[in-house]
Structure formats: C-alpha cells, structure tokens
C-alpha cells in the first residue's frame, strides 16, 4: 500500500473552511464569506502584518493581510484565494460534502480543489513568512476574497474598484495549474497564464399563456425553449487554433500524431469526444472552442397553466479575440429566423473578455525554480484555462497573473479536472504540503 502523508498545518485549516459551507448560489446575499474571513484572521494576524476585512455587505467580507517589504519601490506579490464554493447536492457524494473528512490521506468536501486547498495553503505560507520575520525588499499580500464563483462583483472586482491601493499588486498567483501531466517527453506542469472569457446569457422566450386543458389555445414557451436548447446542444463549430493554444501544444512536446490532432480545426472535436481520458480531452476541447452550455430553465406557473414566457440561462465561454457581439451573432444563428422574433437576449454581466499574461517575467522564473525543487525533471508550460478566475481583474489592470499550485503524483490530471464543480471533490495531504512550501519559496525568490 502507498505511504499516506502525515497531516500538515494546511490540512486542519482546509477542513475548517469546508465545514463553513460558504455556498455561493449567485444570489447577492449568498456565500456568507465573512465567516471564512473571521476564521482566517487569527491565522495571519501576526506582529508586523496589516490586516483588514473589506466588502460590500456585512456578510460578504474579504480578508486582506499585508506583510510590508523593506523597500517601498520593490514589487508586490499577491497570493489570491477565494473562500466561496458552489452548491453540492449531498446525494451525489460518497462522503458528506461539507464534512471536511480526512480519509486515507485525502480531505473530502466541496472546495477541497476549487479552491480552498490553495486558499488554506496560502494563508499558512503567509503566516510562516510573518513568523520567520523574513526581511524581503518586496511586499507580500494574502487575500481571501468573496464571490469568485459568481463572477467576483462582490469580491476581487469590488475590492479593486473601492480599495485598489490595498489589493493591487505587480504579481498575482491564484488558482488552477500545477497538476503533473505525464507525457512521452517527460512530466509537464501547466501554469495558467491565460483564461477564456465569459458571456453568461439569459434568453427570455415568449409565447402565449393558456389553460393546460386546452393546449391549442396557447403557445407554449417551454416547448419553444426546449427546441432552442436542442439547437444550442447541437452546435458543432470548428476548433479555433489561437496563438495561446499553439504555444501550449508546442511546449507540451506531444508526440507527432497527438500534436497534429490538437492543431487540426476539423479533427480536434471528434478526437475529444472519443478520447478515453475525459478530463484532458474535455479541457482540450474547451480551450479551442466557444462553448455554450444551457444550464438553467425557469418557468413560472403551475401544472395546469401553459407558460407564456420562459427564461433560459446559458453559460457561454469565449476564446481570445471573441466579444459579446460575436456571441450574439452565434446565438441568433442558432435560434434561427423562425424563432428569433420570440426571444430576447440579455447578457448577465458586463463584457468579460479572455485575458493573458506574458510568460517572460520574473514571476515565471520564480515559479520554475520553486517547482524544480520538487520535480527537478519537470517542465513548466504555459496554458489557458476554460474557466474563469479572479486573475482576469488583475490582468486587465496590468498585473502579471498566473494560476498555479503544486500537486502530488497521487492526484492525476484527469481526476483534478473532473472534480471542479462536481461530486466527490477531494485533495491529498501531500499536495497541501507541497503548496504550503511553494508559496513561501516563490515569495522569497521573487521579492528578495
């Protein structure tokens, strides 16, 4: 049997964060992340540290801790975690999703991967830097923010709008990346230097209400919405081989056949649909396509009433260079001339474009050196994530921002990708220890 790593300082903190159940449903008053800010405050509130809780509502506070450097002109590194999690229907789980149980070296629960493991390890690493009184020229900031899972308007976005001087930094590290990928040319560690944009959209489908006993009297908006869902689900665009994707494929040094497929606009989707490694294949597909996922259908009324209108919410993710205008054109084409007159299209947030940071940076080199101390034969590779993170706020404001972590060999890339917003989310104790050390190593290297 494999040796189980011993629990570390991050383990208990992760368990406690999971048990808080800071579930963000998307409602403005959900999340209750202030409880997480209160839990983390005594961890980082140490001599020499400046600590604040800030947020738009009493129950939606973010925690910001600053360890000032000795040189005001030196750069600042922000360790950026979020404390909210998505809902977790318990019937889908093997263990209590909010139990935070430690089982055979793995912490189970909602947020164990996304991203409470990173947030907890960042807090512990920050506290260790403060306790050691490391005299760095540069400043280290730890932020545990609210509302990332609903777009960040009550979290990182609000903080930059209202307290920019407190939370802005030259360099930012946040979630995703760092999962060992075993390839024919050796181990690779993806560093997320870019992410897709988003255009969450609400479609209001109109019909004519009537009594359910006389369906010919009405025009059932639910039936029309169902046809629109079918058309969206049948969308099969060609892959778009953008520059960020080309750079990732080249850096991964795949075998010739796989590289050919991953750069083929026609064949990539068919390969992804048939590939047995679902996590890797789904990621490759998402990173090269505008994706549309119809996830919410809402109709008022009752069993004996034909609905006169229905709301359909679609999670749309865009590639570099694509805008809301491009999304609207795609939706209008998919809905079709026969139905478009019965549908109102509403974007659910301000334009959220794809973002990217440069690879040639001091932060990249610090990440490489810190990773090499654990995996000396591995190579860091730049990658794009199909999901959204708070890094986009900082990239827009000029900060070099990467998504990273450092996970053990026990956690496969396929399992890692498949656990985001899914059942049976868990993180191994060994990975928690690696990340705890990672953040400290990068801070000392980058800011000394």
Word description of this protein:
There is one protein chain. The chain starts with 8 loop residues before the first helix and ends with a helix. It is 34% helix and 22% strand. Helix 9 (267-274) runs antiparallel to helix 10 (278-286). The chain has helices spanning 9-20, 34-44, 116-132, 156-162, 164-167, 221-233, 243-252, 256-262, 267-274, 278-286, 324-335, 362-372, 391-396, 413-418, 429-447, and strands at residues 50-54, 62-67, 76-82, 102-103, 106-108, 139-145, 171-174, 181-183, 186-195, 197-198, 201-206, 210-211, 291-298, 305-306, 309-318, 343-347, 355-356, 379-385, 400-403, 426-428. It has 15 helices and 20 strands. A hairpin with a 2-residue loop joins strand 4 and strand 5 (106-108). The strands form five sheets. The chain has a six-stranded mixed beta sheet. Strands 10, 11, 13, 15 and 16 form a five-stranded antiparallel beta sheet that branches. Strands 8, 9, 17 and 18 form a four-stranded mixed beta sheet that branches. The protein is globular and about 75 Å long. With 448 residues, it is an alpha+beta fold. It folds into two domains: 9-182 and 357-447, Zn peptidases (Aminopeptidase, 3-Layer(aba) Sandwich); 197-347, 2-Layer Sandwich (Alpha-Beta Plaits).
Major pleated sheet: 6 strands, mixed
Biggest sheet: strand arrangement: 1-2-6-3-7-19
Distance between the termini: 42 Å
Q: Helical proportion?
A: 25-40%
Radius of gyration computed on alpha carbons = 23 Å
CATH architecture of the largest domain: 3-Layer(aba) Sandwich
- What proportion strand? 15-25%
Specify the CATH class of the largest domain. Answer: Alpha Beta
Shape: globular
**Class per helix and strand makeup:** alpha+beta
CATH superfamily of the largest domain: Zn peptidases
Low-confidence stretches: none
**What's the number of helices?**
15
Structural domain tally: 2
CATH topology of the largest domain: Aminopeptidase
Number of strands: 20
């Amino acid at each position: 049997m494999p040796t189980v790593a011993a629990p570390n300082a991050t383990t208990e903190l992760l368990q406690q964060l999971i048990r808080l159940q800071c579930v963000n449903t998307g409602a403005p008053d959900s999340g209750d992340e202030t409880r997480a800010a209160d839990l983390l405050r005594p961890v980082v509130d140490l001599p020499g540290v400046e600590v604040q809780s800030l947020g738009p509502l009493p129950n939606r506070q973010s925690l910001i801790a600053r360890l000032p450097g000795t040189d005001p002109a030196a750069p600042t590194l922000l360790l950026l975690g979020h404390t909210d999690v998505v809902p977790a229907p318990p019937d889908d789980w093997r263990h209590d999703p909010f139990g935070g149980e430690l089982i055979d070296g793995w912490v189970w629960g909602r947020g164990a991967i996304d991203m409470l493991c990173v947030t907890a390890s960042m807090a512990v690493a920050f506290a260790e830097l403060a306790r050691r009184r490391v005299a760095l020229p540069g400043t280290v900031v730890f932020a545990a923010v609210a509302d990332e899972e609903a777009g960040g308007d009550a979290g990182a976005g609000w903080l930059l709008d209202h307290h920019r001087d407190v939370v802005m930094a030259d360099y930012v590290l946040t979630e995703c990346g760092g999962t060992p990928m075993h390839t024919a040319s050796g181990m690779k560690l993806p560093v997320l230097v870019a992410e897709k944009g988003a255009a969450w959209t609400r479609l209001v489908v109109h019909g004519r209400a009537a009594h359910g006993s006389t369906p010919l009297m009405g025009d059932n908006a639910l039936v029309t919405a169902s046809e629109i869902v079918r058309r969206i689900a049948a969308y099969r665009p060609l892959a778009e081989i953008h520059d960020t994707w080309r750079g990732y494929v080249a850096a991964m040094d795949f075998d010739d056949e796989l590289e050919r497929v991953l750069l083929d606009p026609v064949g990539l989707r068919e390969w992804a649909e048939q590939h047995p490694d679902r996590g890797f294949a789904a990621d490759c597909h998402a990173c090269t396509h505008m994706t549309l996922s119809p996830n919410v259908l809402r109709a008022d009324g009752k069993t004996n009433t034909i609905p006169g209108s229905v709301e359909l919410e679609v999670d749309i993710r865009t590639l570099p260079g694509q805008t809301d205008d491009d999304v609207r054109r795609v939706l209008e084409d998919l809905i079709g001339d026969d139905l478009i007159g019965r549908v109102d299209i509403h974007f659910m947030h301000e334009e959220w474009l794809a973002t990217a940071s440069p690879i040639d940076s001091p932060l990249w080199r610090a990440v490489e050196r810190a990773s090499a101390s654990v995996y000396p034969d591995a190579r860091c590779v730049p990658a794009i994530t199909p999901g959204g993170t708070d890094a986009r706020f900082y990239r827009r404001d000029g900060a070099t921002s990467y998504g990273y972590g450092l996970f053990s060999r026990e956690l496969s890339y396929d399992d890692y990708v498949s656990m985001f917003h899914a059942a049976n989310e868990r993180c191994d104790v060994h990975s928690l220890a690696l990340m705890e050390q990672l953040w400290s190593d990068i801070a000392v290297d980058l800011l000394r």
